[in-house]
Amino acid sequence: MPADNDQSVLEVSGLGKRYPGGSKDVLNDLNLRVEKGEIFGLLGSNGAGKTTTISILSTLIKPTRGSVRICGVDALKHPVKVRRLISLIPQEIALFPKLTGRENMRYFGTLYGLKKKALGLKISETLALFDLDDFADELAGKCSGGIQRRFNIACGILHDPALIFLDEPTVGMDVPSRNALLARIQQLSLKGSTLIYTTHYMEEAEKICSRVLIMDKGICLAQGATRDLISGNDKCRDLNELFLTATGKETNC
Amino acid sequence: MGLLAATLKKELLLLIRDRVGLVLLFVMPAVLVTIVCLVQEKVLNPTTHVLVLDNDKNEIGKIIFKGLKASDNIIAVNGKDIGCDTEAAAKSLVNKGQYQFSIIIPRGSTRFAFDKARQFALGQTDPSGTDSRQITVYFDPSVQGGFRAAVLSSISKVLLCLEYEIKLRQALLLTDRLPDTSPPAPWFDIKEAWATEFGFIKMPTSVQQNVPAWALFGIFFICVPIAGSMIQERDNKTLARLKTMPVPGFIFIFGKIAAYICVCLIQFFFVFFIGKFVFPLLGLPAFVIEGPWLAVLIIIAACAVAAANYGLMLGQVAGSYEQAFVIGPTTIVIAAALGGIIVPVYLMPEPMQFISHLSPLAWALDAFYDILLRGKQIKDVLPEAGYLLVFGFAASGISHISFKYKK
Fold first, then answer.
1. Half-sphere exposure of B165 toward its Cβ, with a 13 Å CA cutoff?
2. By the 8 A CB rule, do B364 and B391 touch?
3. Which stretches in chain A have pLDDT values below 50?
4. What secondary structure, in 3-state letters, does chain B show?
5. Is A138 at the interface with chain B, CB within 8 A?
6. B243 touching A, CB under 8 A?
7. Which residues contact residue B43 at a Cβ distance below 8 angstroms, ignoring those fewer than 6 apart?
8. Which pLDDT does position B137 carry in this prediction?
9. Choosing among A86, A102, A110, which should be mutated to test the B contact, i.e. which has the most B CBs within 10 A?
10. What's the confidence (pLDDT) of residue B196?
11. Consecutive H or E run containing A88
12. First vs last Cα of chain A: how many Å apart?
C-alpha cells in the first residue's frame, strides 16, 4: 500500500525512549519526515540510538514519548496495520539456513499475506531483480555471504512495502558485491519504495541517500539533504568529514 | 490456517534437514531403551557363573552340582573340567572376576552326611548339634548384597532337601520305617498378586517398565533442539523480523509446538516399533500396549506440549546456546532421576519420593504405568495429562513474561 502523493511515508515527532531501569534517555526528541521514493540515511556511531529508532519505527518496541505515523497510520495505536506497510531487513542474515532461498521467500511471502499464484509471480520477479535465479534452490546457509544478503533483502520486499528499514545491509561484503547491492537498492527506490537506510559507511550513504540524519547519544545532530549538508559546511568535503565534525569524533576537517 | 500450515511446514523442513538433530531425536531414545532393557533384563534374570570345587567326589558333590546346573540362571562349571583342583585356585579365579562365586565342597561330605543320617535314624543324634561340615562359598566382591543372600538361600535349600532325602533313605534302610522328618506345615500362606485392573496377573517386565520411561526421557529431550532453534532465530534476528510481520505471535509458537508434537509422536512410535519388533530378535520380551491407545496418545501429546513449551522457555531465558545446551539436558536428567526413570520412585528415600511429585516425568510415567501395568482407562490418566499441560502453559507464561521484559 504505497503512500498518497501528498502524504509523507514516515512522520516522527518528539520521539523519546528510556528503557525500564535505565537512568537516561537513549533517544531524545527525534523529529523526521520521509517522503515517498526517498532513501533516507540514518547515520550514527555505535550506541547513537539507530537500532532503538529502527526498533520503534518497525513496531518492535514502544517509545516512552512521541508519535510515529507511517502512511498516515498511527504506528503506536495500530501496529498490526503498520506491519502490513513496512519491512524490517536486519543487518544479520535473518533467514532460515536449512531452507532454500525460494523456500525462505515463500514462507515470508505467505506471512505477508500473498496467495499462491501472486506469491509465485512475485518470487520470480524478485529473484530476477536480485539476480538470484541460479541460487534459488540452494540451502540459504550454503550460499555465499553476498548471495545470503541479497536473499535477506529479497525476502523483505515481496509484499511491496511502502517503507523498508535496511539496517547496514552491506556489512562484510566485498566491493563488487556491495556496489551490485547498492545498485539494486537504488532500483527499489526508483520503483517507488521508500527506504530508511542505516550504515557506518559514509561514502555509501553519500552515494545513495537523498537525505540523511546524523545522530549521537540519542540526539539528532544534523538532518537534511545530503548535498546541502555537505555544501553548507565549508570545512567538510564529504559526508565522512561532516559526520566526524558533527559527532565531534574528529574536528580537523 | 494457511499461516499456521506454512509455519508448521517450515518447522518440519528445518527438522528434517537437521540430520544430526534427527539422529539425536530418534536414534538416541531407541538406543537408550534397547540398552537399558537389555541391561535390566540381565539384572532381573541374571546369568551367574559358578565354579564348583568338588573335593567330596561322591554323592553330595554330584547332587549339589546337578542342582546348580538345573537352575536357569546359573552356569555351573566343575573345577576339575578346567584344571582347578585347589581351594586357593578357585578363590583366585573368583578374585579375577571369572566366576561370580565358587562353592568348595569339603572332602568326606557324603560319608559325614550318611553317618549323621544313620545316627538320626537310630536315634543317636548329637544333643549339642555342633557337629557339622563347612561348605565355603567365595564371592566376587562386586556381587551385590541382595544377590549374595539369594544365592546363599538357594544353596541352603538344596542342602536342606539333600539332608532330608538322605535321612529318609537311611531311615528306610536301617529301620524299615519313615521317621517324621518333614518340617511343620506353615499356618499362613502368602499369595503373591499384582494390584491391576486387568483381572489377571500381569508380570511387569523390564521392557514394559523401561520402554515408556526412556521414551518419555527422549520426548522431553526435544527441549534442547527447540531451545536451539529459538536462540538461533533470536540471534540472527529472524525472530525480530517475524515480529514485524502482520501475523499474531502465537502462529509462530503454535506452528513450532505443532511440529514438535508431530516429532514426539513419531519418536514414540519409533521406540514402540523397536520395542515390539526388534526386542524379540534380541531375546527380550516384546513391548505391548494392552490399555487404551487413545490414553497413550493423550499422554504423549501432553508430554510433547510440556516439553516443547519448556524448550521455548529455555530458548527465551537462556542467554546463549552454551547455556541452553547445558541447562536443558541437565534439568531433564534431574527430572528423569526424580521422576523414577532411572530408579523407581518407591525405592527412593521418603523426602525424595515427595520431591518426585514435582517432576513432569513422574506424572507422565505414572500415567503410562496406569495404562500399561495397572489396566486403567482414559479417564484415569486425564489428571496427569492435565498436570503436564499446566506445566507447559506455565513454562509458556514464563517465556512470555521474559520476552516482554527482556530488552
1. 11
2. no
3. 1-3, 252-253
4. CHHHHHHHHHHHHHHHHCHHHHHHHHHHHHHHHHHHHHHHHHHHCCCEEEEEEECCCCHHHHHHHHHHHHCCCEEEEEHHHHCCCCHHHHHHHHHCCCCCEEEEECCCHHHHHHHHHHHHHCCCCCCCCCCCCCCEEEECCCCCHHHHHHHHHHHHHHHHHHHHHHHHHHHHHHHCCCCCCCCCCCCCCCCCCCCCCCCCCCCCCHHHHHHHHHHHHHHHCCHHHHHHHHHHHHHCCHHHHHHCCCCCHHHHHHHHHHHHHHHHHHHHHHHHHHHHHHHHHHCCCCCCCCCCHHHHHHHHHHHHHHHHHHHHHHHHHCCCHHHHHHHHHHHHHHHHHHCCCCCCHHHCCHHHHHHHCCCHHHHHHHHHHHHHCCCCCHHHHHHHHHHHHHHHHHHHHHHHHHHHHCC
5. no
6. yes
7. B206
8. 87
9. A110
10. 54
11. strand A86-89
12. 44
Q: Which of B299, B261, B270 is nearest to B211 (CA)?
A: B270
Mention every residue, 6+ apart, whose C-beta is less than 8 A from residue B71. Answer: B154
Average pLDDT of chain B is 83
From the list B6, B17, B238, which residue is nearest A94 (CB)? B238
Determine the 3-state secondary structure of A28 from DSSP: strand
- To the nearest whole Å, the CA of B364 is away from the closest chain A CA by 33
Specify the residue for cell string 517398565. Answer: B209
Tell me the domain boundaries of chain B.
2-42+206-405, 47-175
- Where do we find the cell 518333614? B182
Q: Which CATH number fits domain A1-85+162-168+195-253: 3.40.1570.10, 3.40.50.10860, 3.90.170.10, 3.40.50.300?
A: 3.40.50.300
**Which residue, among B105, B205, B204, has the nearest Cα to B162 in the 3D structure?**
B105
The full set of domain ranges for chain A reads 1-85+162-168+195-253
CA distance A177 to A237: 26
| A117 contacts chain B (CB < 8 A) | no
For the segment(s) B47-175, the CATH number from 3.30.1560, 3.40.1710, 1.10.3680, 1.25.40 is 3.40.1710
C-alpha grid cell, residue B158: 538344596
What percentage of chain B reaches a pLDDT higher than 70?
A: 87
Report the complex ipTM: 0.86
